[in-house]
Each structure stands twice: as structure tokens, then as C-alpha cells.
Amino acid sequence: MEVLAQTPRVSLASFGNTAASSLKRPVFVPSTNGASPAPWAKKDARLVLEDGSVWEGRAFGTQGTALAEVVFNTSLTGYQEILTDPSYKGQFVVFTHPHIGNVGINFGDMESEKCHLGGIIIRDLAASVSNYRSTKTLDAYLKEQGVLGIADVDTRAITRRLRDTGALNGVITTDLSTPVDDLVQQTKSWSILGKDLISEVTCSEPYEWKDTTEHEWEFNPAVQEKGELFHVVAYDFGIKHNILRRLASFGCKLTVVPADYPASKVLEMNPDGIFLSNGPGDPSAVPYAVENVRQVIGKKPVFGICMGHQLLGQAFGGETFKLKFGHHGGNHPIRFGPTSRIEISAQNHNYAVNPATLPDDVEVTHINLNDGTCAGLLCKPKKAMSIQYHPEASPGPHDADVCFEQFIDMLKAERAGAVQAAVAA
Amino acid sequence: MILGAGPIVIGQACEFDYSGTQACKALKAEGYRVVLLNSNPATIMTDPGTADRTYIGPMTPELVEQILEKERPEAILPTMGGQTALNLAKALSEQGILDKYNVELIGAKLPSIDKAEDRELFKQAMKKIGLKTPPSGTASTMEEALVIADQIGKFPLIIRPAFTLGGTGGGIAYNVDEFHEIVDAGLTASLTKQVLVEMSLLGWKEYELEVMRDLADNVVIICSIENIDPMGVHTGDSITIAPAQTLTDKEYQRLRDASVAIIREMGVECGGSNVQMAVNPVDGEVMIIEMNPRVSRSSALASKATGFPIAKIAAKLAVGLSLDQIANDITRKTPASFEPSIDYIVTKIPRFAFEKFPGAKAELTTQMKSVGEAMAMGRTFQESFQKALRSLETGLDGWSLPKNWKRMTRQQVEYGLRVPNPDRMLIVKQAFEDGFTKEQLFELTNIDPWFLSQFEGLHETEEWLRTRKLADLSAEDFLQTKKRGFSDPQIARAVGASPSEVRSRRKELGVVPSYKRVDTCAAEFEAETPYMYSSYDGDSEAAPSSSKKVLILGGGPNRIGQGIEFDYCCCHASFSLRAAGYETIMMNSNPETVSTDYDTSSRLYFEPLTVEDVLNVIETERPDGIIVQFGGQTPLKLAAPLQEALTNNPIPAASGEGNVRIWGTSPESIDEAEDRDKWYKILTRLDIKQPPGDMVVSEQQALTVAQKLGYPVMVRPSFVLGGRAMEIVYTDKDLKRYIENAVEVDPDRPVLVDKYLDRADELDVDALCDKDGNVVICGIMQHIEQAGVHSGDSACSIPPQTIPEECLDTIRDWTTKLAKALKVIGLINIQYCIQDNEVYIIEANPRASRTVPFVAKAIGHPLAAYASLLMSGQTLSEIGFTEEPVLNHVAVKEAVLPFEKFQGADTLLGPEMRSTGEVMGIDKTFAKAYAKAAIAAGQKLPASGNIFITMIDKHKQDVIPIAKKLVELGYGIVATRGTAAALREGGVEATEVLKIQEGRPNAGDLMKNGDISMMFITSTGNEEDVRDGKNLRRLALALKVPIITTLAGARATVQALEGMKSGPLEQVPIQDYFPAAKELSPVEFAA
């Protein structure tokens, strides 16, 4: 096995010690007759959607212009995890929860080393931060990350529009001089369809991951019982740290490899199992990844989450399709077929696997009860399972944590089977 | 069988009518036969059409057994009726009654109830699943309590009694003296004689999660609630918001995981529960405070806040459905197995009534003292908070100091910030104005800095507004101000203009509200149910129709004098007019009610009931009619300004049929009944007598009038609700004190001085009148207590028991004349007084009164529904209600009073209304009906023992026949010296006992030893007498010895005792009294 480079992690030092400092004071604009200035800033940013709608608001974060697909997220908590989730690459996120920034930014809740999304659209930016773990404000963090924010827009109206029309491209700009028509043109000049965003967020070198969920935040008593250690290779299509933490907590030693890492080299490592991560964009845009998956299934137990699930679906020969406005939130009900148990799940995807196109040996184990879409697959003969949503949560409920246990059970069975086979031989 | 919650008391309000009604409806829809027991007649739940068999009567194990015997239900659902129902279920189970009749408890089993209620079991359960509870110990005696206090090691300490309502008897002790006092009260209040002594988490952040579980073990969180008031204030008394705002996802999920683990560990098999938790702001440490294994006030709030009908779903889960088998009513496409996401902020603010209880300290502790609450929604916290404040109807138009605010000294401000009290938010405002910093405010209040900075933002906006003139404000200025929740009157005050000027300028600039929908899913799916709130974000989703429609204005937050009775009327208006083909639009701000259920009316606006907010809805919906008669004073107050606005700017109705207008009795008629001069003129014209009296504008004038009339006189401010500040005075000195202390008298605020008719009988009449001037009397109620006790606090009987027929005929005649003269369309309530067979009118209210639901249930006719149809233009003959009903039974209403919640307040009844709720007893005879009502109200009518009698001089002769009767019934008599002497002279044997201040052993000692089973005590109302009597009365209250404070009450009680002894009380369902009533009940139409 190669010696793996340690991935750079955000260090506490880079945050400085600006604990819970208050945000910038509102910019006071002089009023018409020179009386005291109004306690609200001037509208200095615009969001323009490809349907020609213009939403004026107030800028925060960095200045400039950015173009992306606009999606909405209905989570009530966890904006920091969403900001740092690589799956949002190429997207602007509209937060339906009106107050964003209340708890600032802290060191422990990062889902990757940086912000990947193109910008955020919110109703109200917190005027101050309240949380004992916070080390900086949302505004300061976005500035540092070069991400645009627009506040004071009717996020509900935008959400309803996206619900009705489906996801739209949009431009956020703090440049007030560009005519709207030009901005609308810009939105139409780009499409997320068929775009390989994974290559922009995957790691460049393989590395090893050992961190488990911190003791303080561990919630599942089952993790303490998992004494056995497994080696799992994780394909990084834009992997969230919490997936790695959960796998590590369940006893996995992880080797994270880039998205285009050859399957043959993965199999050479002879891991106990292979994990396919979440990631941004269209699974059809990364045929190389599908090909890698195709080469490993059947050879090792495989577990895919989100993008990993879609790639597995394609590798089985199935088709994926784009949902009207995707699933982004922390409240979707999923039914696990074998037990009829309902999990409340964290969701973040725009594509889904069409179960009708899958071969007979693949069963749909999980269903999204809101729209009946496929939310989980199991192929017993090939020892492969996948989940369309986010059992690692972060943000979101922990109900689906059991999926990691199921994967571990699969690894155990595989190991026991190998021992049996060896004994029999 | 569903158990209701009984009368409205502090800690248990109309939220249980909401939950019980939802449960009845849901279970009937699932095909179950529903038997209901609830003593509260003012509920929609006890309408004959809501359940199949409805028992309105005492909620005691014995009487439940009788019902079980008769109805043989398979299961009892005890989780919809608050603590009352849980306690009753516990008693039934422990007494083996459930086993005897093979009845299953569904929703929560006995062990879950025990685990949640018994502090020690609860702590063990939490420990088992790895959760922390505050260090504490349970004590059954004072000695044990002191040992625990010693172990915890420092004050303050929290004392919580086990098994009580709304934390009765609990409190925070800052020192040893207080510790003794509170532990004593707690041990007495607890049904299990246990108190928990606990480490104080003062200053920790407080959260509540509403959890639901189904029988398949699926668990969802419906709503997270964050308290602005940190730990130390009962959550019912705290200002709370939803969803939680100051938690990271990790912290929130930790609370979620804990709640899920708790509902499982506690063994709540299915249904809703509420978990309360504290979070240390310094390091995030979590402690579990308590859980309720049933739907609660918080579930009502969570339901209204999210659109997720917790009670309805809980009822379905109880009969075996799983969450994914139930559709989300709002989206219709998605299942109920999800967690609502909301894209707005909800603020709930409690409403208090300390002014009603002189002597009680206006401070907030772990014992709940609020009598109601208002809820508001806004797109931001600021908007929602300000809307909630103006929804309270305490004279605030938002978060600005009211005009009459008495500025406090710095020391007072600091005290008021440190010690939670009902005015704390206003004190925060003054503190900002006085230059306190956020940091100082945090030090003093421990309110989370996020909230403080929100308040600071509001303060800055108001300060800025004050620098502007109306003409300076641009459209953007208006929009930004409105987005922060500022009302037109608030802006008007800041810029020095009138509210109507602000309104017209704002509209000129195109700044109008947009209505957003409550959809459970933050707009992810389309909402099929029009449940709306206003905001000033661009896009309006109201989508009003062009149907024939009517806007019903609700009653706002509950308060003493205005509660569930008015919500009942509003619901009936909605049901009946919906059935008559109208689209009904409800507007209200009270989250506890049935009226704010999204399926009660065609459309629901959850909004403050102010002129501005109502006009906004009128302009959006353009209804054919507006109903202001049913929500009590709240909408009635709005009638005149609304009428003025509609006259100045007529609005065409959306249906195309004429203009929007106020339905029913005209605002001018309402004014005629309220304006003294106009009122005198009408009475003179109609030749109707009223007690002599006059209106005065100075102290001197008051004295002159009083001397002319002769004492005692009744004094009150000219415009009052629920008898606020009404008093009977006996001397010049009293009158002076009243004028100086109780009211400010000046030409703008005149005071009425009327001759007090001593020993007069009081009667209440409800009547219906149609547009053609036909009048039908619905019911004449005779008050048990004589005139002088507020009608809301007095028990009463339909039909009257001791009034000569000719007096009743006079009343019938006058009622008809007056209703016609006032051109009443709908309901009118008139109060009369009879002294020496002479009838006097006291007042008339041309609107639905507090008594409407009681009368409706007593006579078996849905009066509010009829009144609504009359307002829509139908006639009495079209409805088929043309004659005063003649009854073969007696219905008695008894009031329920909250004295035990207010330490230090006296328990005497008077002209100021203080009751929070009512119960009803119905039977063939008055004696039995009254016995039922008294038992239902919580009076322990003793079967034997000693009755303690102490009367003031003028009652000493009158009490002799009462005492004689008691002796005949086998009771012993104990009396103080004077009373005993009078009794002996009258031939009644009485044991003499010392008054408390006369030495030992005294009446108090006898009471403590359990030798007194009931007390009759009257008071002159003078200072010494009040002081001496008060101690006895408070003691009796603490020991739960029944107290009767009026002679008339004593007379009626003796009849009740007689009735009780004459044979067993029998429960008969309301449907058997009125076999035809089911068809008349409008609830069916709503399903």
C-alpha cells in the first residue's frame, strides 16, 4: 500500500480568536433631507434567474458576480454543514429558514476544507452571533472563502418559483451596472447538465482518514460494540467529512482516493469494502467513475451514498434522471422496505435512479414517501448497497445511521465467508 | 371513550377543547363510536354532534364507572384531556375499575403516566438512557426536603410538587424561609404528597420539542420551541418562539436524539409528547427537565405554528394507524410521517391577570400564572414578535413603551430585568432607551444575545423613525419598517401623525401586506389549505375567491372574562354559515382554540385583531359580511372604527353583491347600549327601570351622588370588561379610597355610581332577534349568588328556581322591547336584578355573551349557529326557533376560580370577575344538578362531618334555617362565638370555636386536624374583617376544605348536600336530554 498524504484540514489557528464577535453594523445611508440615516443598508446586490425574474437584496460575503444553478434547502439548522458540503458545487442555495448566521461558524462542523457552493440566498442575516463554539461570523467566513451572499430577498417566493418551474440557473452580482438582460443571457449560457463537477471537488492524492465522531457528539451506542477493524477504500466524489467520521466510528480504517483513481489499484489494496461517496452534479457526466464502480462490484462489498448510489445504479445498467427541483432538506420520510421502518432523512440530490431500468437482482430497499422515488438499493449477489440520501446526516436527523451498521454487517459477513472458504479449502 | 379536561383553569385552557374535538372528529371519521366525558359546557367537544354519547358532568372515578357500566367502551383515550384526564385515568386504573370493565388505556399506559409524573422514576429512566437531569431529590416531609437542600448545597433551589396542574405549589426558593414556605405549599398541593427539590438551572437556555410516535415505533419531531425567557420561568409563562434559533445542527440533533430516546424509554406507545430541556449556554451541556406523555398546551402551539394537527394525528395513532398511513392534510400528497419545516418565525406571548388578584406578587416563577396567550407569525423574528405583542390586547401596538408607561428608576429597571415579571419585555425597551448595552442586558436577564440584538435592531429602527416626519418616509422606508413588524399606530406615534394618516400614506406608496401560507414544508410542496399570516415580503399567496363569504373575528388571547365561550360562538358561526353555503374566513390570534384549526373555517388568517390588521384582511378578501358579535369585547371594540373605515371608503364585496358590511346588530346599536346617556334615554322611552345611579367625573361628585343614593353603592369605571375595578363600597372613606387608588377619574374617564341592591336576585337572559324584529327568549338564568357577585363568578340555574312568574314575565316583556328598540340582529344578553319583587335592568350587551354555550347545552339548541343564520338574513321562523324552550330538567353552571395560583390573594367573590372557567351539572332536580356542578367544579361535598359557620352580623339570622337543615342531614355545626350564640338562640346546637386571632385551639387548628369538612364564611368587606377572614380562607384553600362565601351559596350548597343524600347521582348523556339536538348541531357540517 502507498504511503498516503494527510489531507489538509482546517486548523483552529486559521480562525484567529474573534470569538462570537458581532457582525458589521448596518450601513447607514444618508436620507433625502440629510436627517439621520436609516438603520438598514441600501440594496446592493441582485439575483437574476433565467426566467428573467430579478430579486434585489443586500450583499454580504464577498463582492462580485457568480453563476450557478439555484436550489432551495428546507433544513432548519446546519447552514455551515451545507456551505461546506462539496455536493453543492455549481449551485446557489436558497435557505428557506429565514434567519441564517445565528450561530456563526465553528471549527467542528466543517464538512470539507472549504465552501464549494457558488453563493447563498437568504431572507435575513443574523446581526450577531450566539454560540459557545462559534469562532467567526458567517459574513467573515464567506468573505474569506470568496463566496457571494444575498440577503433580504423573499426566499419563499423564490422557492415557490423553483418548485413550479424546476431548478433554474441564476446570477448573483454586486455589480449594479450590468443590465438585467445581459445577466439573463449569462444564466442561459451555462448548464449544469452533463458537467463534470466531481473533478473539481475530489482530492488530488489518496490519503488516510482515522478521525471518528468526537466523543461529545457520539449518539449511537452501537458504535462502541464494533470492535473489529475493517479497511475501506472510499472514492471521493466530493466526500463529506461526516461520512468518514461515521465509518471510522464503526471501526473502519479509511483510504480516501480521488474520483478517477483506477479500480484496479483499489482492488490491489485488497480492502474489506469499497465506499462510493456523495458528490455534486450529474452522474452521467462522469462515465469514468461509473466504469470504476462497474469494475469493483461483485468483487468487494460496496456501499454508495447519494452520488455513489446513482453511480452504482448506472453501473448496474440502470438509468438516472433529473428531478424537477431535487430533494434538499432534513425532513424527508424514507421507508425501509424489509421492516417498514420510517427514517426521517437528510437529503441533497437532484438526480434519481429509475428503478424500472435496473436488473432483476437489484432490489429497491428504500423509498422516499414524499414522491415515491427510489432511495436505496441492495444487490445481494454482488454484495452492494446504496442510499440516495445522507445517513451521515450533518446536517439532519440521525435516523439512518443504521445504514452504516448494515454496511459493517456486510463486511463482517464477507470476512466470515472468506474465513469459512479458507477453512473449507 | 375520550376524557376531556374539565373546566378552564390556569395551566389548562381551551387547547384541550382543540385536542379533544380533533380526537372526537378523527375517531368518528375512522368509524368508532365515541363516548365523551367533560364537565365543561363551553366546549365544541361537548356539542351533541361532536361525540356519539356526551356526558357533561363531574369527572370522578365513581361517575366514570357508571358510564363504563352503561356504555361499555373498549378503550379509554386519556391523552387529550390534559392533566385532568391523566389523573382520572390513573385513579381508574389504580382502583381496578379499568380491569373490572375490561377497558384498555390507549395512547399512554399507566406506567408511562407514572414514570413521567413521579420525579424519581423519571430521573431513573433518564439515567438509564444516558441523559442528565438536574441534581435533585424527592421529599415527602419537610425534614427530608431540608436534607436534600443540604446535599445540593446552594440556593436558589427549585421545588416542584408531583402530580399537579401547571406546577401548582411549586416555586424557586432563594433562602431558607422561602424554602420552608414553598415546600409546605408543594407537599399540600401534590396528590402524592411529594415534592422534588432540585438544583436551579436559572439562566440556562430552555427548549421544548414536540414528539410523536406511532405503534410501529416511528418517531418524528413536529416542532422545536425556544424560550426567550431562560430557565426559571414556567414555560407557559415564557415568551417562546418556534423554531429554535440559537442551536447548531449538532446541538439540535442532540436534543432530537434525546427526545426520541425519551418517548421510547417512557413507553409512550403512540401519540404526542412534549419534552422540556435546558442547555447550558457556556458549554452546551444538556439536562432533561420533564416530559408530558400527552398532548399539551405546547402541542396546540406546535400544531398552530406548523400546520401539523398533532391531536388529530395522535387520535388516529391511538387506534393503530401508523404515521405513513395518514396523509398530510395541508399538502394532501405527502404523508404525515415527516418533520415540518417552516419558513417563518412564530412567537407566543402569555397574557397575565395579576391586576385581578391584589396581594399576589406580579413575578414569574416555575408556577404558571398566565391565563391565556397570543401567537403571531412573521417572516422574521422581529415581525413576529411585534405582531404577537399587539395581538395580546394589553394596549400595546408593538414593542414600544405605551403612552401611560411610568418610567422606572435605574434601580427598578435593574430589578425588573433580573426578576422575571409580566412587563419584562417593556423594561428591556426602557433599558435600551436609557442606554443600557446588550452586554448589560445579558448580565441582568440571561436572555440569549441573539434575541437581544434583535431587540436592539427594533430599538434603533424606532429611534430613527422618531427623527422623521410622515412625509419623509419613502416606500422603501415604509417597507423596511413594516418588515420589522411596526404597526401603523406605532409608526404614527414615532413620526407624530395619526394611524389613519399613516395608513393612507403607506397605501399611497403601495406598501401593503402580502399573505403567506402555513404549509408544513417551507414551500417545498403546494399547500391545499388556505392557512395564512401577513408579512411584508413581496409575494401574496392569499388567492381570495369571489364566493359569497363572511369574515368572523375571533376573541384573541384568553383572559379572565373572555375565554373559550367566545371561541365556541365563533366556531359555531363558521360551521353554520359554511353549511349555509358561505365561504367562512376566521381571523384570530389565539393558538389554544378550535377556531384557529385550519379545518374549522374555509380560510384562516392567524393575525392580530387590530383595526389595521383586520382592515388589511378585509381589503384582501372583500367579504360580504363581517361578524363582530361573537369574539367578545375584542372584535366588538373594532366595530366602530371598522364601520367608520367602511363608510368612508366603501369596498365592493368580492362576490359582486353590494359592499362589504358588518353583519348583525349595527355598531350604532352597540354604542347605544354602552353609552350612558343614550342608554338612559332608551330605558326612559321604554319605561324600563334601572337601579338609581349616576355618572361622575370627580371625587366630590361621587360623594354627593353616593350620599344621595345611600350606601352601599356599586362603583365602576364606565367602560369595563369582566367587572374590572368594580367594587361595592359602604362608606365615604371606602369611596375616597376607591377613587384615589382603583381608578383615575376625570372627564374622559367617568365613573358610574349606582345604588347597590342588597340581597337582590340577579338574572341573565339570552335572547335571539331577527331582522324583522321577532324576539325569542333562549333562557333565563337565575344566579345562585345574589347581586354583587360578578355574573361570571356566580353559579346559575336554568330555569330560575325562586323567582315569581310575574317577575319573569316582566323580564320577558322588557327583553323583547329592548331587543326591538336596539334593532338587534342575532344575540342579546341582558342582566336583571330583582329586589322585593321589583325588577331592575342592570345592563344589556347586544352580542354573544359568556353564557351562550351553557344556555345552548341546557336547552339543546345551538344558539350561536342560529344567531349566525339570523345575521346572514334568515328569520327565526325559517330556522324553526320560535318559542322559549320549556325544560323538564335543571341545568346548573358553576364557576371555577384560580385562587390557589395566587398566593396572598383573598378568595372572596365580588363584583370583579376572577373565574377562569365553568362546569355544568344537569339533572331532573335543582338539588342534584347543583350537586353535580359543585362536584364538577372541584368542591368536595362532604357526606358527613362538621360544618364551620362564621357569619357577619346581618347574616346571623338568615343562617339559622340553613344550619337547621344541616343538622337534620346529620352534620355537626362548629361556629365562632357570635354566630354560635345566634344559632343557639335559633335552636341550633353549635360547638363554639375561637377565631384564629383569639388564641388556641382555634378554627384553624380544627381545620388542620381534619375536623372541619366545609366552611361557610361571609364578610362585610371592611378592612379588619377582610384581614381576619382571609387567613381562614387561605388556610381552607390550602387544605382543600370547601369554602362558601355567600349566604345564597350556602343555601344552594345545603340543597346540593340534600340532593346528594337523597340517592345516587346518575349520569345521563346530553343526547338523551335532546334526542333531536344531534341534527341541529353544526359540527357535523364541518367534517
From TrEMBL, chain A:
GO terms for cellular component: carbamoyl-phosphate synthase complex. Gene3D superfamilies: 3.40.50.880, Carbamoyl-phosphate synthase small subunit, N-terminal domain (3.50.30.20). InterPro entries: CarbamoylP_synth_ssu (IPR006274), CarbamoylP_synth_ssu_N (IPR002474), CarbP_synth_ssu_N_sf (IPR036480), Class_I_gatase-like (IPR029062), CPSase_GATase1 (IPR035686), GATASE (IPR017926). The keyword Ligase applies. It catalyses: L-glutamine + H2O = L-glutamate + NH4(+). The keyword Amino-acid biosynthesis applies. Its EC number is 6.3.5.5. GO terms for biological process: 'de novo' pyrimidine nucleobase biosynthetic process; glutamine metabolic process; L-arginine biosynthetic process; pyrimidine nucleotide biosynthetic process. Residues 43-173 form the Carbamoyl-phosphate synthase small subunit N-terminal domain. Pathway: Pyrimidine metabolism; UMP biosynthesis via de novo pathway; (S)-dihydroorotate from bicarbonate: step 1/3; Amino-acid biosynthesis; L-arginine biosynthesis; carbamoyl phosphate from bicarbonate: step 1/1. One of its GO terms (molecular function) is carbamoyl-phosphate synthase (glutamine-hydrolyzing) activity. Keywords: Amino-acid biosynthesis, Arginine biosynthesis, ATP-binding, Glutamine amidotransferase, Ligase, Nucleotide-binding, Pyrimidine biosynthesis. It holds the Pfam family GATase. Heterodimer composed of 2 chains; the small (or glutamine) chain promotes the hydrolysis of glutamine to ammonia, which is used by the large (or ammonia) chain to synthesize carbamoyl phosphate. Belongs to the CarA family. HAMAP family: CPSase_S_chain (MF_01209). Small subunit of the arginine-specific carbamoyl phosphate synthase (CPSase). CPSase catalyzes the formation of carbamoyl phosphate from the ammonia moiety of glutamine, carbonate, and phosphate donated by ATP, the first step of the arginine biosynthetic pathway. The small subunit (glutamine amidotransferase) binds and cleaves glutamine to supply the large subunit with the substrate ammonia. PANTHER family: CARBAMOYL-PHOSPHATE SYNTHASE ARGININE-SPECIFIC SMALL CHAIN, CARBAMOYLTRANSFERASE FAMILY MEMBER. NCBIfam families: CPSaseIIsmall (TIGR01368), PRK12838.1 (NF009475). This is Carbamoyl phosphate synthase small chain, chloroplastic. It comes from Coccomyxa subellipsoidea (strain C-169).
From TrEMBL, chain B:
Pathway: Amino-acid biosynthesis; L-arginine biosynthesis; carbamoyl phosphate from bicarbonate: step 1/1. Keywords: Amino-acid biosynthesis, Arginine biosynthesis, ATP-binding, Ligase, Magnesium, Manganese, Metal-binding, Nucleotide-binding, Pyrimidine biosynthesis, Repeat. Residues 123-319, 680-872 form the ATP-grasp domain. InterPro entries: ATP-grasp, ATP_grasp_subdomain_1, CarbamoylP_synth_lsu_oligo_sf, CPAse_ATP-bd, CPSase_dom, CPSase_lsu, CPSase_lsu_oligo, CPSase_preATP-grasp. One of its GO terms (cellular component) is cytoplasm. GO terms for biological process: 'de novo' UMP biosynthetic process; glutamine metabolic process; L-arginine biosynthetic process. It catalyses: hydrogencarbonate + NH4(+) + 2 ATP = carbamoyl phosphate + 2 ADP + phosphate + 2 H(+). Residues 939-1080 form the MGS-like domain. One of its GO terms (molecular function) is metal ion binding. Its cofactor is Mn(2+). This is Carbamoyl phosphate synthase arginine-specific large chain, chloroplastic. It comes from Coccomyxa subellipsoidea (strain C-169). The lineage of its organism: Eukaryota, Viridiplantae, Chlorophyta, core chlorophytes, Trebouxiophyceae.
